Amino acid sequence: MRLVILGAGESGIGTAILGKKKGYDVFVSDFGKIKGNYKEVLIINEIAWEEEKHTEDLILNADVVMKSPGIPDKSPIVKKLSAKEIPVLSEIEFAAPFTDATIIGITGSNGKTTTTMLTYHLLKSAGLNVGLGGNIGKSFAWQVADNKYDSYVLELSSFQLDGIFKFKPHIAIITNISPDHLDRYDYKYENYIASKFRITMNQTEEDYLIYDADDEAITEWFKTHTTKAKLIPFSLTKTFSEGAYIKNNKMEISINQEEFTMDTAHIALEGKHNMKNAMAATSVAKLMQIRKSTIRESLSNFQGVEHRLEKVLKIQNVQYINDSKATNVNATFFALDSMNTPTVWIVGGVDKGNDYNELMSLVREKVKAIICLGVDNKKIIDVFGNVVDMMVEVSTMNDAVRMAQRLSEKGDTVLLSPACASFDLFENYEDRGNQFKQAVKNL
After folding, report:
1. Structural domains present in the chain
2. Model's pTM, two decimal places?
3. 114 is in an annotated binding site
4. CA dihedral in degrees (243, 281, 142, 192; nearest 10)?
5. Residue 408 marked ligand-binding
């Protein structure tokens, strides 16, 4: 069996290792340059590879192809593979049959990293032998090749779900759905929604789907679609006989005739959206039969996720917050919603078809100045130009932070929450967040 891997990033290299271990004839092809450390791994494992090109003769003879989530279906080589009816899978689809572990799959437009990390923290603190993968950490395929975990918590993007056919998590979570990555879905929101719901398409009556019952797109989907999985909703406003909700400042969860309650004041994460993440993760912990005392302790000591509403420093009584992971409008909505002081907002980057009007009421209420940090800021300026007193354009993170210091005064917050991808000026959102933190430390 010939396995061809397109893209030599974390998921590609992990799949190559697993494929080699399982006796496939493996070939890795990357249209860009392969990072030095990954190249070493390929060489040590005697896996054939090429970079800065896709040689068709070496690719179109594949029995199966694993495509990196970053490569769109529209790319010429993928179209040629489709024309020849060669199956093109995601890493998750390829690796899943090689493990008997219980899989918890988490998707959503926002909150999925926090929910994934919190779920992993809950299970690991309870002493479970658990792996963390998908969109974060070491690739799932690599872990399946090297480790023997009893369960995995996987963060799954819509791109990864587009490449699944038989994959089924025992427990699936959809944190929420809001327009994102529409450039990859022909600018059709319904295509993106359908992609998220692929997480439950193979689930059976023995499996569970945990979802946000306050979410409009999710509720609409359920009006015309079904899943076999047992449904566990969570909500900030509704109550359920089976599900999770907040009532009188208490998180209440009822699953399989078992009750769990916890005062929300004792939960380490702050903000309404984080209550939802906590309800989703705790529902998993209950399904995995983790003791109540362990759950309470883990919820109260969880540290949060880097680049997600991360408090950096307070300088001259101005709080600097790094929310670089907010790569869409919905994520920035949560960030602005949780601001309690006048805010200097750093925004901008590569726009994925954003509608900034959704932020209008929050910007009017909370934002005193906007700093645009992007190559093309026209859309942001058009929408908010008349709404805030100060609007400044900068092209480096250092300039953004220095300008923010000038525009802020005691008691204010400086918030980096870009609502956009980072690829115009930075390598990725981590690089953007790290540059912000460094610039703040240099003030």
Report:
1. 2-89 (3.40.50.720), 93-301 (3.40.1190.10), 310-441 (3.90.190.20)
2. 0.83
3. yes
4. 60
5. no
